[in-house]
Design goal:
By secondary structure, the protein is of the alpha+beta class. The protein is built from five helices and five strands. The chain has two domains: 5-84, Winged helix-like DNA-binding domain superfamily/Winged helix DNA-binding domain (Arc Repressor Mutant, subunit A, Orthogonal Bundle), CATH 1.10.10; 91-136, 2-Layer Sandwich (Dna Ligase, domain 1). Helix 2 crosses helix 3 and helix 3 (39-46) crosses helix 4 (55-67). The two termini are 30 Å apart.
């Protein structure tokens, strides 16, 4: 990750996002777990330690972090949204066997879409799917 937790907390304060205990735990989870989790995965991981946490709080927190450009939503599959604390340009690879999602470096500015010259592009994503090295060895 390219930002420290202090930088992210300062950014949240500057954007007037309230820093409740639950929100801090969600943010901390994303910082410590670069697994591109879903909201349900975050909830399940935190609920034992934060019994007052609700799924609604997790979703609302993620929406606030996305709106503040601190977290990036990933829609690699139609049925799931995953969340990435790394908001810098990079690609994602999803293993079709184990479901892991990993980052990879890519120069998104080098991608050209000549048919879109008169369009304003607000987001670029590159997703690859296949089998990861760990699953290929099984």
């Amino acid at each position: 990750m390219n930002s420290s937790i202090k930088d992210l907390l300062d950014e949240l304060k500057n954007k007037n996002i309230r820093l409740s205990h639950q929100r801090l735990k969600v943010l901390e989870y994303l910082i410590l777990n670069h697994c591109h989790p879903t909201a349900d995965q975050i909830y399940n991981a935190l609920h034992k330690d934060v019994p007052t946490l609700s799924k609604t709080t997790v979703y609302n927190t993620l929406n606030a972090l996305v709106k503040a450009n601190i977290v990036r939503p990933l829609n690699i599959e139609n049925a799931e949204t995953r969340y990435d604390i790394n908001t810098f340009d990079h690609g994602h690879f999803k293993c079709e066997s184990c479901g892991d999602v990993v980052d990879f470096s890519i120069n998104l500015d080098a991608l050209k879409a000549n048919d879109l010259n008169n369009y304003e592009i607000t987001d670029k994503n590159v997703y690859f799917k296949g089998i990861c090295p760990k699953c290929l060895q099984i």
